[in-house]
């Protein structure tokens, strides 16, 4: 416990605070096989393997992560979730394309990638030595509670997928945190954001379970509205949006992390002398 009581270095280059963006929601325009729940936070493909395109309801703010968790998988299909950004306003589409790749991308001003861990990163401008310096595994949440992407700093807690509370949840949670599970595993969390650059363009980043995969595309038009694209394709059947806090981690969040690290597994939280509401907050992550 003493190790986690040390003050966290916030780092001078990073912004201490920025305006909180509005909650993310799915757009009313989507693929023919998609059903969005009344809250606008869950999208499910109800048949076939295609016509699963979804968009963010509003353009993303710089540094805002459009984060989804894979809720359901469907056996029998080849392929997985696809993720990216588009400068096309979904409301102006004559028809929603069947696929993000290649159909939506062929319309132009769209950058979408099939989710993999290794093949979405474009080369860094400062050479292969800098690329080799990128850590292969994210640090523990209590060691560094932020994910730093270019000029933005994002609390890491909710970026990482978590298993359902159970006897082996402490082992499964470590697999999500270390990002050793397949990136499209059930309950993995995948996000997309853009970071403006001084020349007026932007880099697109994809985040997998709290790990920045590096710039997936460069040269995006930062001055234009950019909408998130989620293609609920093939073996990915249902996703839900996860909301993030962009300020300093709350005391409640930090206390939850300490409690979770102090028990063998999350079911053991039931044995602690804590109010039921706090126990539920520590066991479940929504």
UniProtKB/TrEMBL annotation:
Residues 1-22 are annotated as: Disordered. Residues 250-286 form the SOCS box domain. Residues 23-244 form the NHR domain. InterPro entries: B30.2/SPRY_sf (IPR043136), Neuralized (IPR037962), NHR_dom (IPR006573), SOCS_box (IPR001496), SOCS_box-like_dom_sf (IPR036036). It comes from the Eukaryota. SUPFAM superfamilies: SOCS box-like. PROSITE patterns: NHR, SOCS. It holds the Pfam family SOCS_box. Pathway: Protein modification; protein ubiquitination. This is Neuralized E3 ubiquitin protein ligase 2.
